[in-house]
Each structure stands twice: as C-alpha cells, then as structure tokens.
Amino acid sequence: MKTLLLVDDQVLFRESLALLLRQRLPQVRVLEAGSLHVALRRCVEEAAIDLVVLDLELRDSRGLMTLERLRAARPGLAVVVVSGTLDESMAGEVRQRGALGFLPKSSRADALVDTLQRTLLGREPATRHEERIDPLSERQQEVLGLLVAGKSNKLICRELDVSEATVKTHLQAIFRKLDVNSRTQAVVAAVRLGLHTPAPGR
C-alpha cells in the first residue's frame, strides 16, 4: 500500500481533500499534517511515505523555504506542491528545488486525483491542468475561499467589509449552485468539482 502525506493548514480544505483521496484511491494510505512541524515529525515516524502533497504557505513556514526545509529533513522525498497561486515562475522554482510538480488548487478534483495517482505509481511529473469549473461570481468565489479556510460568517464580514446579511445571501447562492445544504458539504463539493478559490491574501 502506498502512503501519501497531505500537508495544508486550511483544515476544511485539507480534510475534504483527504476524504476525496480516500474515496477515490482506497489503496492509498492518506496521512495529514496541518503544519510543517507536524509534517517533519510524520516524516521521521513514517519511514514509508511515498509522496508528500505540500502547500507552501503554512502557519509555521512560508514560501519556498517550506519545501527546502522538508527536503533537507528527508532527502529524496517525493513532493508535489499544491498552491492557491497560479504562478508559472513558482512552478519552475519548485521543480528546481526538487519537487516533482506543481498543481494549482483550482484544478478539477478528477484531474488532481488522477495526477497524484500517476505520480504515486510511477513518479510521473505532476503538471498543471487547465480545465476548471467556476460558475460562481467573483464575490461568491471570495466567500467560498474564506469558507474553505474555516472562517465564520462574522470573520467573512470583516475580511470582505460587508454585512452579515450579505454574506448569508452569498452562502445561500453558493449552496444552491453546489446543490448542498451545509458549510461542510459546500467545502467537500468545492474540492470535488474543482471550484475551490483561495481566500483573499492566500
């Protein structure tokens, strides 16, 4: 059985992606870490980690240093960077530092899972997938990004400088478009359909 370590500090996004991976790839053991500190400990405790899916922007480490620290602690570790930033120069930078590939979080879930599966099986370089689904308005995308980041309605109000009633209206529209009835279901659907948009500032 292959082992994959998912490292991301956005709890709802990480748990939703982990759930999706477990459903789609039952033959893969999925571990989780919400910080670089926990990820490094996992790498020491778990000798048989076949692939790390890494968000560079963690609460205890930022940018390319995150990748460098992880690979310094475990040389030869296979890493795919998953980021909310669609930056082609960053894709080149992470490959130069030893990552197998770079995938935007806005990739369709099917494409993301397929690429990670192929990478696990043969270390085929993970590449960016262009096909995405995005039926939400720009403001709804921002609300969804904050929802995935685990923000409450009040915190979303502060982030976007809008009233709580406006946030509720956007959430109702998002729930309707995603055909869900709760915040958690919305996050799972966003990951499954590739509709996740990073929260402002991420």
TrEMBL record:
Q: Which domain of life is it from?
A: Bacteria
Where, per the database record, does this protein carry 4-aspartylphosphate? D55
Where the record annotates domain HTH luxR-type, the positions are 129-194
Which key words tag this protein in UniProt? DNA-binding, Phosphoprotein
Question: Can you give the residue ranges of the Response regulatory domain?
Answer: 3-120
Task: Name the Gene Ontology molecular function terms of this record.
Answer: DNA binding
Q: Which PANTHER family match?
A: HTH-TYPE TRANSCRIPTIONAL REGULATOR YHJB-RELATED, NARL SUBFAMILY
Report the protein name in the record.
Answer: DNA-binding NarL/FixJ family response regulator
